[in-house]
Design brief:
The protein is built from 1 helix and 10 strands, in the order ββββββββββα. The chain is mostly beta strands and 145 residues long. The protein is elongated, with a radius of gyration of 18 Å.
């Protein structure tokens, strides 16, 4: 450290990494990936896909992964699996997300086997949320008023 201001050189972004893999016999799964209200990708998932993004340190995070246009009669095995989801190297269990689908399947899962949307919604800055879910107490934030 050369000067006191070096202490203030805090990283201002978070790394988001998602690994998706397809399951199918004949029909390749179609999916969409939305981050904070913006569609990032919408296509067929033919092989394992890793999505890496940088996020604002203090922004809320909303991730949506959807399985689209599955034809249950032609290939009932068609699915997408969330293999890994990590935010700043914290592995986030996909069961923390909510999976809304056309078959009314309600259990926590990383296996998206029905037409529907898996969503992880973090309404507060990531590190405040992380401290709460890992039982590390509360992080205080500066009041800007």
């Amino acid at each position: 450290m050369k000067t006191f201001s070096d202490l203030l050189a805090t990283k201002q972004t978070l790394n988001l990494s998602i690994v998706l893999s397809p399951l199918f016999q004949t029909i390749v799964p179609e999916f969409s990936y939305e981050l904070n209200g913006q569609t990032i990708l919408s296509e067929k998932l033919t092989s394992v896909l890793t999505l890496n993004t940088k996020l604002d340190l203090l922004a809320p995070i909303n991730i949506k992964i959807a399985l689209l246009n599955k034809n249950y009669n032609l290939d009932h095995s068609t699915a997408i699996v969330i293999e890994r989801l990590a935010i700043d190297q914290l592995i986030v269990n996909p069961s923390m997300g909510l999976y809304t689908n056309d078959q009314n399947f309600q259990n926590p899962t990383n296996h998206l086997g029905f037409n529907g949307v898996w969503e992880l919604d973090i309404h507060q800055p990531f590190y405040q949320w992380r401290h709460q879910i890992t039982n590390q107490g509360w992080l205080f934030y500066q009041n800007t008023n």
